[in-house]
Amino acid sequence: MGFSEPNYSGHCAYRGLGFYPNGQPFAQRVNYIYGRGLRAGYVPVSPTKVYWFICYNSPSAGPKITDPSLLKKQAKELVSNWPAELLELIDISPDETISRTTLVDRWLWPGVTPQASRGKVVLVGDAWHPMTPNLGQGACCALEDAITLTRKLADSMKSGTPSIEEALRAYGEERWPRVFPLTIRANLVGSLLQWDNPLVCSARNNVVIPKLVRLGPMLEHTNFECEPLKA
C-alpha cells in the first residue's frame, strides 16, 4: 500500500488488569497520577477488574520483553514511591494481562501519504492510522471506520452501477478529516503529559490540566456520531 512504518513517539507503556475476586474497591472513575516524564492511571472496567497503565519516556523502544515477572518488576520500579493501590494493582494482575508496548503513530499528511485504498484493498483502524492512546480514540476510530466503510459499500451496492473502488475511496475521503487531526492531537497531548522539566510540570499540573480536562474542551472529540447504518 506504500505506507511508512509507524513513528515511535518516545514513550512506552506498561499495561495490566488487576483482578479482585471478591470485588474491586474503587469508585467508577478514571484515576490519573502525574510525575516528571512519567504518568500512570487506573480505572475499574468490571466489578472485579481494574485496568491500569504506566507511561514513561524512553529514548528508544528497547528490546522486546514478554516475561510477566520481569515486566511487573520493571513497572513497580518506575513507581516505587507512588500510591500503594497502584503497586497492588500490578501485583494482583494475572500474567497474561501484563504487557509493555511502544507508543507509535502515523500522520496522514495530505498529498504525501497514500490513500486508504488501492483497487479493492482497503485499510482500517491501526493498519491505516495508528495513533497514541492519549485521547482514548484509537479503538473508537477503528469502529467508526467499520461503520463508515459498511455504509459506503452498502450504498454502492444499492446504486444502479455499483463500484467497490469508488466506495472505498469515498470511505477514505470521509474518514481522513476525522482521524488525521485526532492523531496529531493525541501525539501533542502525550508530549504535554510526559514533560519532565520541573517548572513546566508544575504549570501542567496546576494550570493546563485543570483548565483543559476538568472544563471539558479536551473531551470535545468524544462527541462524535457516525451516520447510522440503514437496513
From TrEMBL:
Keywords, ordered alphabetically: Monooxygenase, Oxidoreductase
Record Pfam families: FAD_binding_3
Transmembrane segments: none
Family annotation (Gene3D superfamilies): FAD/NAD(P)-binding domain
Keyword Cell inner membrane: no
Domain FAD-binding: 113-179
Molecular function (Gene Ontology), one example: monooxygenase activity
Entry similarity comment: Belongs to the 3-hydroxybenzoate 6-hydroxylase family.
Designated name of the protein: Monooxygenase, FAD-binding protein
Gene source species: Corchorus olitorius
Classification of source organism: Eukaryota, Viridiplantae, Streptophyta, Embryophyta, Tracheophyta
